[in-house]
Each structure stands twice: as C-alpha cells, then as structure tokens.
Specification:
Blueprint: E1 2-5, H1 7-24, E2 31-34, H2 36-40, E3 44-48, H3 58-62, H4 64-81, E4 86-89, H5 92-101, E5 108-111, H6 123-128, E6 133-136, H7 139-147, E7 151-154, H8 159-162, H9 169-176, E8 183-188, H10 193-213, E9 217-222, H11 229-239, E10 244-246, H12 249-255, E11 258-262, H13 265-272, E12 277-281, H14 285-294, H15 302-307, E13 314-316, H16 322-334, H17 336-350, H18 358-371
C-alpha cells in the first residue's frame, strides 16, 4: 500500500490510519510520501513532503517547476512499486493531479478528499469522474459528492477521538507556564510557514492591545511541528511581547478563555472542545480574488459550516486587523454569557462529525478495498 500525504495535517491523519492498519495486520507493507509522524507509524518514506504545502493559488504557479518535478518523482515511485492500493490523504492540489495522471493504473482511495460543498462549478463531478473511492470526514462533503455521483462514504472525523488535552486540569496551567489566577488567550496562526508569516504578527499586535486593557492576561502560541518553532520564536522576539510557546495544542484550547485561530482544521478541533474563538485568515490579494470567485458561501470556517450559520466571528482579508481581533476577543473576555453560548453552539456543531471510531471505519474501508481491488490494469 502506498500513501501520499502533505503538510502537517495530512501527515497526522495518514499516521493514525497507518497505525490502525498495522494493528489489524502487522505484516502489511506501508510505503509512501509524508512526514515524521507517518515514519513513526511504520510507513517507509520514499520522499519527505513535510514542507511541500503552500497557501493560495499564485504561489503554486510561481513554484510550478518544483511542483512538476515532485509530481513526476512521486508518479515514478508509484509506477515502480506498483502498490495494491494508493491511498491519498488531503493535499488536494497535488493529489488530484496525481490521481488524474495515474487513473486506471492502480486502485485509488482518497481519505479527506478535497472540499467541494463550498465551491462553485463542477469540482465534485470532476473528482467523481476519476473513479476513486472517497472517504469523507465531513457530512456535507459526503452529501455533495454523493449528489455528483461519486463513490463516497461518510466515515466521520478522527478528531472526535483524538482531540484530548494531554495534561490534567490540576497541572495544565503550570505545564503551559501560566501564572496562578491569570487568564490566557491562545494564538494559533496555522501549521504552514506562510501562515505564520501572514497571521502571527497581527495576532501579536492584537495581543498587545488586549494586554493594555486586561490586567494579568497572558498569551500562548501552540506550535504543532518542531520545524515551525524557529519562525514562531523569531516573530515573537520581533514583537517584544511576553508569550508562552508550547507543543500542547489541545491543552491551550482547553485552558484559554478565548482563541484567535487560523481558519482550518484547528477550528474544528477547538469546536470539539467547545473553545470560544475568533477565526482569522488572510491570503495574498490575487489568491483572495480567485478564492472569492470560487466560493459559493460567505462562511468559510468549519464550525460555521457545520452549524449552517455564523456561530463564531470570521475576520478575513482586510477585516483581519489587530483592532478588530482585539475587539472580538475583548467581548469574549468580558461576557461569560457570550462564551457560554458559543461553547454550546460549538459542541452542537461538532456533534455532526459522527460517532467515535472514524479511523477504525476508514481502516475497514481500506482493507475491504485491498481485498476487492478495482481499476487495476
């Protein structure tokens, strides 16, 4: 079996699935393209894709030569290995091109397929036409793919099982470096270097404004991957603001009175914990214009999409200013009722992610497809 995943989030999800597959069948051979977590889960990595992820639509064009070289290298590796099954995990720009290039040569299963429910056009039909087995982790995505005629099943989201704080509440504050009696705000700028460069500075500017208004307020930045730590440390040092940095993402979500969080998977994880949040994001201008033309909804954050309405504020593009961020966080810090309402709404939205056991259900689908391969020539 051959996995292809990119970026931190894909590496995490592919590793979880790999561990479950090896638990059921210790003799199974797992090869692929991914990162450290996949390697630790027993996947023999042929290429490391940890730093392949980019944001927006323009940067990939600027790196087209590099992108095409990587695509050729991965295709060549798959053709050489001829796996019984190719498992694609997230990483849509790359993996869709790979699936198209390899169509008909190897059975393909796509775990965390590209989001289509919020896009204009016919992307769902285009993906369906590739003939892959799709394992959707969001209910509205499964519905959109089914309507387009795709071979799809809703397995639920693994975060329902995996989002758990590491530390007991009695010791959590000390482990995060927080002072007794203080309140904390979590700053989560994302898991890509581009996101840290674009989002962390305005988050820190907002933190400075909040610190002037709230005595004893502290700030924590969780860093999901060690390779991102130097960029985070440099940005904080330039800001000259006292900030705690930790690897314990879920503990920050559980402990903070409010989060400022980049739109993406982390908002879903925070929703499971009922953590009050302000969602932010900023793309380069040309990428933002393209994204606006493609989107079919005014809401973009996963908690709001799950709820079908706005339950958390979204500050996107020009609206993502330190003053606005600080203003929304200020409201959450001052209003216990607002925090309680948001927590209840978030947990209600997260209940749509399916019951526990998503990774086990995904593994069952993978093993079933291994036993009954389709599309091999």
């Amino acid at each position: 079996m051959f996995f292809v995943a990119g970026e931190v989030s894909g590496d995490i999800q592919a590793a979880l699935l790999s561990r479950e597959l090896r638990r059921r069948n210790p003799a199974i051979e797992l090869l692929g393209v991914g990162g450290d977590r996949m390697a630790a889960a027993g996947v023999a990595l042929l290429l490391d894709s940890a730093d392949w992820g980019v944001i927006g639509h323009i940067t990939p064009l600027l790196r087209a030569r590099q992108y095409l070289r990587r695509l050729r290298d991965v295709q060549a590796a798959i053709r050489r290995v001829r796996p019984d099954l190719l498992v694609l995990v997230d990483f849509p720009g790359f993996n869709l091109a790979l699936a198209s290039a390899l169509r008909g040569t190897v059975p393909v299963l796509y775990y965390f397929p590209p989001m289509v429910s919020v896009r204009r056009g016919h992307r769902a039909r285009s993906v369906a036409a590739l003939g892959m087995r799709l394992l959707a982790t969001l209910p509205f995505e499964a519905d959109a793919y089914a309507a387009a005629g795709a071979d799809v099943t809703f397995v639920g989201h693994p975060a329902v099982d995996t989002v758990r704080p590491v530390w007991d509440p009695a010791v959590r504050r000390a482990r995060l470096g927080l002072s007794p009696g203080s309140r904390a705000v979590g700053l989560l700028p994302g898991s890509r270097a581009q996101e840290i460069a674009a989002l962390l500075p305005p988050m820190l500017d907002a933190a400075r404004q909040l610190r002037e208004r709230h005595r004893g307020l502290e700030f924590v930045v969780p860093v999901p991957a060690a390779r991102l730590r130097p960029a985070v440390d440099r940005t904080i040092a330039r800001a000259g603001l006292p900030v705690h940095v930790t690897a314990d993402v879920y503990d920050v979500m559980a402990e903070a009175a409010a989060l400022v969080i980049a739109s993406g998977t982390a908002t879903l994880e925070a929703a499971i914990l009922g953590a009050p949040m302000v969602v932010v994001y900023r793309l380069p201008v040309l990428s933002a214009l393209i994204a606006a033309a493609l989107l079919s909804t005014r809401l973009v954050s996963l908690p709001n999409l799950l709820a079908g309405r706005q339950i958390v504020p979204e500050l996107l593009q020009y609206r993502m200013t330190p003053r606005r961020i600080a203003g929304h966080v200020d409201t959450l810090l001052h209003s216990g009722a607002r925090r309680s309402t948001m927590t209840a709404d978030l947990r209600a939205a997260a209940s749509r992610l399916g019951p526990p056991g998503a990774v086990e259900r995904a593994a069952t689908e993978v093993l079933t497809m291994l036993d009954h391969p389709r599309g091999r020539r």
